[in-house]
C-alpha cells in the first residue's frame, strides 16, 4: 500500500497505517494544511471552497472527512457531490470561490483515492504553493475556528448541467451541425461520474447513446486506465452496435479515449491531435503538450502553420507554457484536452464536443480520420521502484550516456533521436519509473523501450 505526497496533492491507498496510506487521519491533516494555506493566500475573513468527487467506493468517506475539516477551519463549502474534475474546475470561478478540491485518484484502481487541489481560478496549484502545503502538513500547526465561526455547507448538484451548457456555448461548437449527423456512440463510463456527464452531453447534441458501465457505483468493471488492454468490451460493442465510434473516460473524466468504428483504438495520443486539427483549422495559433506526448501534435500544428512546444509532464506545467505561448489548444497525450476558451484544465466534455464537430464537418469514418494522421506508435512501460534503487543517479547516468543526442532534462531525461524518442521519468503519482518511447512502428517502439530498460538495469546493477 502507498501514500504519495506531491506538489499536486496527496494520493494513497485506503486502509492500513497512518502516514503510509490515505487513512482518515492523513485526509484530515492534508485538508487542514490546504485550508490553512488558503486562508493565508486569500487573505480574507471568510473563504469558500468548491468540492466534488468521483464515484469510487471511498469517496463519500473521504469527502465527509475533508468537508468537516474545512467547516472546522471556518471555511464554507459548496458541495457538488458526484462530479468530474473539469466540472469542479469550472465551478470555482463561476462561484467566485477561493479554491477547490476534487476527491479522485484519476486512473488509479479502486483502492486509491486522492485530494487534488485548485486555486481561485480553478487551476492546479503551482510547485511553490504545493511545497508550502506539504510543509504545513509536516508541522501540523493548525488554528481551527471557534463555534460561532464554523463554516457552512451549501449543496449544488446542478453543475454537470452548467458544465454542459458551457460546452454548448463554445464558439467552435455548433450543436445543430452535430445533431444533423445523427451519430451513434457507445460510452464506457467505468461506473463513475463520466457515466453521468458524457451521456448527458451527447444527448443534448442529438447523439444516440449506447451506455456501457455508466452506473456511478464505484465498482470499476475493469482497470480504469483507458488503455487498449482494458477495453475489450467497448471495442466489441462498438462493432456489434454498428456505432460511429466509442468514448472512454477515466473515473474523474479528464482523460478521453476514442474507439474507431472498426472496434480498434483511435489512440489516446491522437485524441489531442484530432481536437487540435479541428481547432487549428478554425483558429490560427500554437500548441503545447508534454514531453511524453506524440510527435503527431507537432506535425499537425506545423501543417496548420503553427508552432509546437513541449512542457514538463504535469497539467500545471502544460498550462504555464500554454499561457506563456498564448496557445489556442494543448494538453497531454494521455487524452487530456485543454482548450483555453473554456478553461485551463483537461476536459473530456470539451474534447468530446470538438471531436464531434470535426467528424460532423469532415465526414467519413473515425477509422478513416485516424488513417489520415501521421502514424506513430508508442510504448509505455514502467519499472517498479524499490528502496535500494537510486532513481536520480540512474537518470543522471542515462543523461550522461546520451549527452551528445538532442537531450532534455527539464523533467527526467528525454532523448530525441532522428526517427524516435525515449522519455524516462519518475512518476508523481505512483512508485515507478516511466519509460515512454515513440517510433514509426510498434515493434520499434517496444524494442527501444526494452533496450532502454536493459540499460537502466545495467546502470542500477539489477
Quick tags:
462 residues; alpha/beta; Alpha-D-Glucose-1,6-Bisphosphate, Chain A, domain 3; TATA-Binding Protein; 3 domains; five-stranded antiparallel beta sheet; globular
Strand order of the largest sheet: 1-2-6-5-3-4-7
CATH homologous superfamily title of the largest domain: Alpha-D-Glucose-1,6-Bisphosphate, subunit A, domain 3
Radius of gyration: 22 Å
Q: What is the 3D form?
A: globular
Head-to-tail CA distance between termini: 24 Å
Low-confidence stretches: none
Count of distinct structural domains: 3
Secondary structural class: alpha/beta
Task: Provide structural commentary.
By secondary structure, the chain is of the alpha/beta class. The protein has 15 helices and 20 strands. The protein has helices at 24-42, 59-73, 85-94, 127-139, 159-168, 175-181, 194-204, 232-240, 268-282, 296-303, 315-325, 348-362, 366-372, 391-401, 442-460, and strands spanning 3-6, 9-13, 48-53, 76-82, 99-103, 112-118, 153-155, 184-188, 208-212, 245-249, 256-259, 287-290, 308-311, 329-332, 336-338, 377-384, 406-408, 413-416, 421-426, 432-439. The strands form 4 sheets. It has a 7-stranded mixed sheet, with helices on both faces. A 5-stranded antiparallel sheet has the order 16-20-19-18-17, with helices on one face. The chain has a 4-stranded mixed sheet with strand order 9-8-10-11, with helices on both faces. α7 packs parallel to α12 and α9 (268-282) crosses α12. The two termini are 24 Å apart. 52% of the residues are buried. The mean pLDDT is 95. This is Phosphoglucosamine mutase. It comes from Croceitalea rosinachiae. Its EC number is 5.4.2.10.
Amino acid at each position: 500500500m502507498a501514500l504519495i505526497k506531491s506538489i499536486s496533492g496527496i494520493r494513497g491507498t485506503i486502509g492500513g497505517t497512518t502516514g503510509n496510506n490515505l487513512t482518515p487521519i492523513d485526509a484530515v491533516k492534508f485538508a487542514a494544511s490546504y485550508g490553512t494555506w488558503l486562508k493565508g493566500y486569500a487573505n480574507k475573513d471568510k473563504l469558500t471552497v468548491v468540492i466534488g468527487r468521483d464515484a469510487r467506493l471511498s469517496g463519500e468517506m473521504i469527502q465527509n472527512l475533508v468537508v468537516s475539516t474545512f467547516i472546522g477551519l471556518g471555511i464554507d463549502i459548496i458541495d457538488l457531490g458526484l462530479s468530474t474534475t473539469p466540472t469542479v474546475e469550472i465551478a470555482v470561478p463561476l462561484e467566485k470561490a477561493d479554491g477547490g478540491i476534487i476527491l479522485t485518484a484519476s486512473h488509479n484502481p479502486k483502492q486509491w483515492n486522492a485530494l487534488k487541489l485548485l486555486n481561485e481560478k480553478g487551476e492546479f496549484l503551482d510547485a511553490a504553493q504545493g511545497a508550502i502545503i506539504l510543509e504545513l502538513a509536516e508541522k501540523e500547526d493548525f488554528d481551527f475556528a471557534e463555534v460561532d465561526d464554523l463554516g457552512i455547507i451549501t449543496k449544488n448538484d446542478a453543475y454537470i448541467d452548467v458544465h454542459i451548457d458551457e460546452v454548448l456555448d463554445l464558439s467552435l461548437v455548433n450543436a445543430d451541425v452535430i445533431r444533423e449527423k445523427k451519430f451513434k456512440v457507445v460510452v464506457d463510463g467505468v461506473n463513475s461520474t463520466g457515466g453521468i456527464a458524457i451521456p448527458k452531453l451527447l444527448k443534448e447534441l442529438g447523439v444516440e447513446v449506447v451506455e456501457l458501465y455508466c452506473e456511478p457505483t464505484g465498482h470499476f468493471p475493469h482497470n480504469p486506465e483507458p488503455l487498449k488492454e482494458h477495453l475489450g468490451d467497448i471495442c466489441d460493442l462498438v462493432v456489434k452496435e454498428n456505432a460511429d465510434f466509442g468514448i472512454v473516460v477515466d473515473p474523474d473524466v479528464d482523460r478521453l479515449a476514442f474507439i474507431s468504428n472498426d472496434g480498434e483504438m483511435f489512440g489516446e495520443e491522437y485524441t489531442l491531435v484530432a481536437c487540435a486539427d479541428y481547432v487549428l483549422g478554425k483558429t490560427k495559433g500554437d500548441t503545447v503538450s508534454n514531453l511524453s506526448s506524440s510527435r503527431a501534435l507537432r506535425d499537425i500544428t506545423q501543417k496548420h502553420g503553427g508552432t509546437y512546444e513541449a512542457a514538463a509532464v504535469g497539467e500545471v506545467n502544460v498550462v504555464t507554457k500554454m499561457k506563456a505561448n498564448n496557445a489556442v489548444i494543448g494538453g497531454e497525450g494521455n487524452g487530456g484536452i485543454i482548450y483555453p476558451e473554456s478553461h485551463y484544465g483537461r476536459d473530456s466534455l470539451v474534447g468530446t464536443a470538438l471531436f464531434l464537430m470535426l467528424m460532423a464537418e469532415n465526414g467519413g469514418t473515425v477509422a478513416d480520420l485516424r488513417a489520415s494522421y501521421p502514424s506513430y506508435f508508442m510504448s509505455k512501460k514502467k519499472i517498479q521502484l524499490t528502496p535500494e534503487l537510486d532513481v536520480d543517479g540512474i537518470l543522471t547516468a542515462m543523461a550522461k550516456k546520451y549527452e551528445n543526442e538532442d537531450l532534455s532534462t527539464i523533467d527526467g531525461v528525454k532523448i530525441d533521436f532522428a526517427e524516435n524518442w525515449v522519455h524516462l521519468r519518475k512518476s508523481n503519482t505512483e512508485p515507478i519509473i516511466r519509460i515512454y518511447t515513440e517510433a514509426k512502428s510498434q515493434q520499434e517502439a517496444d524494442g527501444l523501450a526494452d533496450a532502454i530498460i536493459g540499460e537502466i538495469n545495467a546502470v542500477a546493477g539489477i
